[in-house]
Each structure stands twice: as C-alpha cells, then as structure tokens.
Amino acid sequence: MTAITQVHARQVLDSRGNPTVEVEVTTKAGFGRAIVPSGASTGEHEACELRDGNPSIFNGLSVMNAVNNVNTELFERVKGMDVQDLKTLDMTMIELDGTPNKSRLGANAILGLSMAAAHAAANEKNMMLWEHLNPKASRMPVPMMNVINGGSHADSSVDFQEFMIVPLGAASFTQALRFGTETFHALKKLLKEAGHSTSVGDEGGFAPNLGSNEEAMNFLVAAIERAGYVPGKDIAIALDPAVSEMFEGGMYHFKRSGGGCKTSDEMIELWEKWVRDYPIVSIEDGLDENDWEGWKKFHKALGKKIQIVGDDFLVTNTKFLSRAISEDAANAILIKVNQIGSMTEAMDAIHMAHDAKWRAIVSHRSGETEDITIADLVVAMECGQIKTGSLSRTDRIAKYNQLLRIEEALGDKAVYINPFSTTE
Description:
16 strands; Enolase-like, domain 1; about 20% strand
C-alpha cells in the first residue's frame, strides 16, 4: 500500500512570477503535492537549481528540463519504492544524479519529489506532515518577521537585506503572530507619516528609500513602541544583512546607502556597536560566506551575546556545518531545503546542529509559493525558530496560517519558548 505508483511534475510559478517545479506523488493509499522555492540571494555552494537557459522562454528561467527529469528518469527509478522510507528514497535519487551538487537532474527536481513523497506518506496515515515526521513534537517556533526589505530583495537605498522583528515575549505562537502583525501595521503608519513608500519587497516587508541602514533600525524600534510593546522584552530585532552580496575585492561596499567600504574587522566593529545600541538577538550572514577567519572573530566577539547564524556561509550542508562547529565559527545554522536539495539532508543538518548544542532556524526563500512544508518541518524538528517573511503576501501568510492550524491541533501540548532566554 505504501509503494509509489505515480509521479507527476509540472512547471508552475513562484511569488516573483518565475517558473518553479511542482511535484505530485501517488500511492495506492496516499497522495502528496509540493512546490519548490527559489532564492535570489544565493550562496555559491548551494545545490544546483536546474534552469533551461533559453532566453526566449521565461527569460531563460523555465524549468522544463527539471520537470522532465522528474517525469522520466526519476519516476522510473523510484516507482515501486516505499514512500514511508524517505531516507532511502532521497539517497536513491541523489545517487542517480551522481554529481556533488545535483546539477545533472537538478536539486529542484529531486527536492520536489522528496517533499511530495513526505506529504504522501503523511496522507497515507491521515496525519499532518509534522505529526508524521515526529508525533511527539510540541514546540511551536518563534517567528522572525522580515518587515523591512533591502539588498537584493528590494529596489531601495538600504544595503542590508532583512530587518526582522522577533516576538519572543509572547505566550503562544498565536499571540506572537498578533504581536508581529500589530507592529507591522504600526511600521506602515510610521513610514507613511514620514513620507516614505509603503510598497513591499519580495518577502512582504516594506522597501523604503531611507537615509541610512541605521534609519531602518530606528523605524523598527519606533514601530515596536507604537504598537504598545517593549523593545527587547516583548519584541526584539534580528538581522540578515546578507553581506556576501556586498563583498567585492576584499571589502564590503555600501553602494546603496553611499556608506563607503569596510574591512572584515570594521564590519565586526559595526555589529558590536549595533548590538550595544539596539535590541538585537540574532545576526545572520554578517560576513562574507568565504571569510572563515572573519567568522571566527565575529563569533568570538559576539557569540556569547547574540545568535550568530550561517546561511550562505553554511548552505544547509553538513560538510560546512561540521567545519564551523569544530572551528567555533558560529552558533546557529539557517535551514533552507532547496539549498541542499532533499528533505533528508535538511533534517540531517538540523540533527547535527542540535547535537552540537547549536540552534537551527527553518527558512523560506525569497521566491516562495503557497506550499507550507517548512511550517510542518520546523515543528517536527522542534527547531523553535522560523523565518517565513513579513505579515503580507499570501506566499508568506500561508506558512503562518499552517502554524496556527498546527498549534490548534496540538492544543494544551503546544509550547512556545523564547529561544534567547538564559534558561532555554
């Protein structure tokens, strides 16, 4: 009853209007569907997102080769396999691809099938995905809500990519979502009052042209207060500067804001000042992805005060994570399923992080869809933190709404814990 009988992929659109892969997996007793996300700010070591490259069709971004790989070679290999044995299924696809970064068949092809198979396995048991993956799970995640977008996520004068609010003082996920939503709307009013645009970027956050990166921070603090909350107690701030996008010729170039250039050591000094001046609890990709010596200095300087997160730096890859753990280069990893290209490998990275007493944050991508897989994954893996964008755009809200459903299903078993508490 658990054998895969049919696999079907098609080309659909993501939140930026670009093609991506949707996969359906059918067994005699189950059905699963999943859509693969896509990133704009991507690490150079990520698994290969296979695009067709024909400039006359979808500007070269069509994914029909990946779709065809699912419908032909991958289907022929996985037909009859046990959908309940996701690890064997994923490893079989990875072996069939035969490349280090899934470039032959495409990480988007392999991941789409992997995610859809996980949903089919849950459907066979008449369970939500989180319950199928871990029926003992009870921890709801603290959301990192990206309410000001800059960098490659917006056409604005802000160099840094994500300015997030973190409702760590809430008593439940449902209450955290209210805290964040009220602050989001307070921020909109403040921006309007100051004469700024309130159009939104790729992840649903506002994308104003501000005078400096610090001005974005000041607006966040003011919005938290305008909404009636205490900065640092009820709602803190998290950053994803994604500075690899700014790194060129050994220097960090503040081209958007006209802030000149900084060395690695000067970037660390900047982050130390910001941590002193603002209620920051987490900084992600605060240095270039290849600056290992800088990361070690960065973690030594601030690792006992805040969460130091590797995204482009670690690309959900246990090889890079293992090195970072051994070299004490960070204390948290961002988990993006399409960075590595299979559900199993993403979960392996989470297990490795937890075994090392690191934190793991499950994350969306800037090119998202209505797919809600990561909402279930973050609960199943009990990560305690999720990044899934701002409080607008259905592609972001879909994940929040799924987490509301999960919390309701858990009932009294649901727990919401401040991951930055000294008692955590």
